[in-house]
């Protein structure tokens, strides 16, 4: 097995030259089984989803406009005047507690996000005339917030390609924003384009001060983006939004690289809740999602908290991500032969691994075969695999084994 580990890098380099690009998502209608590099070309049939549960949201949040999950509870806020953050019970949707952001003004708080140490609140709603020059994000230290003595910094920004600040009139600008996410070193804004019905992605530092938000890319979501949630470790971001006729939707972004959100898989899912202004979305595991809608008094729709199960869309992708492909100090306990192999691979294991399993990944990190270990010697049919290098991964403190399919 040491010999296999030593050739891993050389094989990776040689196979990368022969790697094939295409759609790698098995749920897409143009899935390419021979592709090892996702090129963002996947296309999907139309889909819709209904909430698993719905609860009326606490009366303190009629204008709920964002959601995060932190400290085992939900956090939300209103988008007009109110300078409080509220914690919300995940089961009952009742408001548990409020936290006042002292010495702030809520001109138009439209979104909330977080990293490990800070909560961020975006005061960047810009739909009234499209000409705000005081767009900013509040950066609140988490521990101080819990102590009801919030330490708050401010991140000011302007859009790199907005040069005209003439008043546009209500809901007539492409420089509105209601969604953003925070990564290890940056903030990504997802605009709400009232005219184009797309979302443009801008990036800026997450440090206090004055910044120019640089245009990164644009996605044609055919709707109005109102919120986003992000799992950086799993490369999943889910936008929520609605059409101009208030038909809400989710827009799924996943399997992208280096926070290039526009160049991975993109799928729109209609939400079966007509005339609901879905404004906030969050998740803790990438499968169960919480979403909130504002009060729509004209139609008698109160503010609500919904849960959605997106397993049907994400479970295959998430199960294909290895929990670790890094090498540890303990050598692989597997003996594999022949190597290279054409049709059949034999994996011999020690007694302690019987009744466990392994997963065979291609060089792009996509799971191809799951192998249950029912005995010491296990025969694996690999005739459907394309020629190339593969990694055999087992849970535990072991190196991965490598074999070549001819």
Summarize the structure.
The chain is mostly beta strands and 406 residues long. The protein contains three helices and 30 strands.
Overall description:
The chain is mainly β and 406 residues long. It has two domains: 2-40 and 326-405, Immunoglobulin-like (Sandwich), CATH 2.60.40.3080; 47-319, Neuraminidase (6 Propeller). 8% of the residues lie in helices and 43% in strands. It contains three helices and 30 strands. The chain has helices spanning 2-18, 142-146, 311-319; strands at 21-22, 37-38, 47-49, 53-56, 64-70, 73-78, 84-88, 95-100, 109-114, 118-123, 136-141, 152-159, 176-182, 186-192, 199-205, 209-219, 224-231, 236-242, 248-254, 265-271, 278-283, 288-293, 304-309, 335-337, 344-348, 357-362, 367-372, 377-381, 388-393, 401-405. Strands 9-10-11-12-16-15-14-13 form an eight-stranded mixed beta sheet. A hairpin with a 6-residue loop joins strand 7 (84-88) and strand 8 (95-100). The longest helix is centred in the N-terminal third of the chain and has 17 residues, at 2-18. The chain is elongated and about 70 Å long. The chain starts with a helix and ends with a strand. Mean pLDDT is 91; it is low at 1-7, 12-16 and 323-329.
């Amino acid at each position: 097995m040491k010999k296999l580990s030593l050739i891993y890098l050389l094989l990776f380099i040689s196979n990368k030259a022969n790697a094939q690009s295409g759609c790698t998502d098995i749920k897409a209608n143009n899935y390419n089984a021979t592709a090892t590099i996702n090129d963002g070309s996947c296309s999907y049939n139309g889909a819709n989803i209904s909430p698993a549960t719905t609860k009326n949201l606490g009366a303190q949040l009629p204008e709920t406009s964002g959601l995060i999950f932190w400290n085992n509870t939900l956090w939300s806020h209103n988008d007009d005047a109110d300078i409080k953050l509220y914690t919300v019970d995940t089961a009952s949707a009742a408001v548990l507690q409020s936290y006042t952001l002292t010495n702030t003004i809520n001109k138009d708080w439209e979104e909330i996000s977080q990293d490990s140490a800070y909560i961020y609140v975006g005061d960047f709603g810009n739909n009234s005339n499209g000409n705000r020059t005081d767009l900013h994000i509040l950066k609140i230290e988490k521990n101080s917030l819990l102590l009801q003595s919030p330490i708050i910094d401010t991140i000011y920004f302007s859009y790199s390609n907005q040069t005209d600040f003439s008043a546009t009139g209500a809901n007539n600008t492409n420089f509105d924003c209601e969604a953003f996410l925070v990564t290890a070193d940056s903030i990504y804004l997802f605009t709400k384009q009232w005219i184009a019905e797309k979302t443009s992605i801008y990036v800026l530092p997450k440090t206090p001060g004055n910044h120019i938000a640089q245009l990164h890319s644009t996605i044609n979501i055919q709707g109005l983006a109102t919120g986003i949630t992000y799992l950086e470790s799993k490369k999943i971001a889910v936008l929520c939004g609605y059409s101009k006729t208030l038909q809400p939707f989710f827009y799924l972004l996943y399997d992208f690289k280096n926070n290039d959100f526009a160049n991975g898989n993109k799928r729109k899912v209609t939400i079966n809740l007509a005339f609901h202004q879905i404004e906030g979305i969050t998740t803790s595991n990438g499968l169960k999602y919480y979403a909130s809608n504002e009060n729509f008094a004209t139609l008698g729709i109160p503010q609500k908290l919904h849960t959605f199960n997106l397993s049907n869309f994400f479970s295959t992708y998430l199960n294909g991500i290895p929990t670790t492909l890094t090498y540890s100090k303990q050598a692989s306990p597997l003996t594999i032969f022949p190597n290279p192999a054409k049709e059949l691979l034999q994996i011999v294991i020690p007694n302690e691994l019987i009744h466990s399993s392994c997963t065979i990944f291609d060089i792009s990190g996509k799971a191809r075969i799951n192998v249950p270990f029912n005995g010491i010697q296990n025969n694996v049919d690999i005739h459907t695999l394309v020629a190339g290098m593969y990694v055999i991964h087992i849970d535990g403190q072991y190196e991965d084994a490598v074999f070549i399919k001819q």
